[in-house]
Amino acid sequence: MNSDLLTILLPTLALTGWALLLLLVDLWIPREHKGITAVLAAAGLAAALGLTLSQGRLPAMTDSTVMVISDGYALFLDVLFLASGLAGVALAHEYLKRANIANGEYYALLLFSVAGMMLMAHAYNLILIFLALELLSIPLYILSGINRPRLESEESALKYFLLGAFSSGFVLYGTALIYGATARTDLPGIFAALQSAPVNPVIFILGAVLLLVGLAYKVSAVPFHMWTPDVYEGAPTPVTGFMAVAVKAAGFAVLGRILMAAFPTVGKDLTPILWALAALTMLVGNLAAITQKSIKRMLAYSSIAHAGYLLMALVPFSNRLVNSDVQASLLFYLVAYALTGLGAWAVVTALEKQNGDGLKLEDYAGLGKSHPWLALAMTVFMLSFTGIPLTLGFWGKFYLFRTAIEGGFTLLAVIGVVTSLISAYYYLRVLMYMYMRAGSPSVERAPWLQVTAVAAALAVVLISFIPNVLLNLAGNSLLLLP
Amino acid sequence: MSPAVIIFIVLALVAVACAVAMLVSKNAVYSALFLVLNFATIGVIYLMLGAPFIAVAQITVYAGAIMVLFLFVIMLLGGENLRLGEPLRGQRLIGLIFGAVLLAEIVLLLIFRSGMDQMVGTLTIDTSPAALGLEMFNKYSLPFEVTSLVLLVAVIGAVILTRVDPIRRPGKPDQDRKDQSGRQA
Description:
The complex is a heterodimer of chains A (482) and B (185). With 482 residues, chain A is mainly α.
């Protein structure tokens, strides 16, 4: 290994090492005190966060074998993944105790998954992208099934595993075809091969489309979304929250990286596909969410819908003029979605009972009276999901639609606006239950969940007053284009 | 005919015969063993094509590891005495149709093979195991290490998901399961 590689991957390697140690140390921590493991895991994530931030001043660079890259895009995403990991730990601790599944391995697996995501953000080679995808997915297959004797949890894990393996097959097959067409697996090499050497267009486009399909499974874009509601419903709620936010972010991170670093010259072939995927995902996700009675399923469909909005950001990827806007709006929306999503899932986790009840919309009746802070936080999240002003979600959608229109996809932006209006129906219904129906919801005493929810709500509101700061951060983290 | 062609014809005949025997044999264990033989012959064909690494990988991974797993599963589940039926109707017909399509595809490719060589980028690389090993541990050392991590995580997962939990009283999981299935029914 050369030294550049170590420099670029230092935070990832530190986190991986910490996860391995945690696995060992956990053996000496008694079952009643698994909180220690949680604190240790959080410390590891915080340390990796510190290392990542300390790398902020490094120039963008790749290593000599062109396996990994370090640039603003990757660092921005690293911070997002590590913060999601911290929230994942906060969400999990009390829930695991309540559900009597306090495993120390939970945190180690979470750390491995975050390490896989960070590797994904830095990967600059299709081989490494595939391996990072596996490294982030396999721990999540296991975590979905960690509530083992519960049938829903087992079903969720098995479904997720089978469909995940299926989608990995697509990614691998696409990689093989792209390698067959260009004889390269590193992204800049593919870009160069497309420009200079004669490349068989059929094979190449077939490979690119297969790669796209595989990643569309991962981010649950319609029509590859069927697994999402079942998996999200059956998995333990903290895992679902982490999956809904971080895995989606990782999927879009690598989609954006591949599209913008390797495929900009085949834009006219791929843009229509992305357009259709984005439009379908927005429509189906939002329409299906309307009929859901369970809050977990509703949020699952909502996460599908948001994958559609995120895809919209990527549609004009090949247009050099709006390239930086594409990236800035994608990253901005990922942050907005992550904060809102993690907060909303924290509230859901707080209301879930030990036996898995408390997940229906009716269970939220009267929350506004009994737990005003939690209800207020949930209100902020629902408004932010809808895209109402004074929340981060509004600015996220605003920048997305602006990017789409600048790229010349006005119809897509119109679909986005219309589906956002539709989504108001089911998001605001939660508010109606919380404030206008009488009821006595039972909320578990879980300080960390409430801290996470309130902190996320504060961030969603406060950052919405200074959206430019975040947008500039996202926009300045320009990809290193070949 | 050159000796290479003769060897190839023999290997090809054995491979096809094994594949057919695997399909028609009544005992699942025989089927699995015929598949091993088929994999081995394909491995020798790879060797003839000048790809020793793939040949060895074919033998160790497919004929070795995967088929041993197959045999374990067949014997543990008592699959060798299973009556040959069709669990899903119409599979034979669909199989025939797909087989015909594949055959037609291959024949068409053989007829219109002009342009085939431009389909894929041509590479002249050293495929000896030594050269591959050098590549793997120099240029591809990072993916290699990440693979080991992926396998480690998978092992941890297998342990977690199959471990009998000491904290749950024996019988409790079954109780849970019954409650669950009762509620779903």
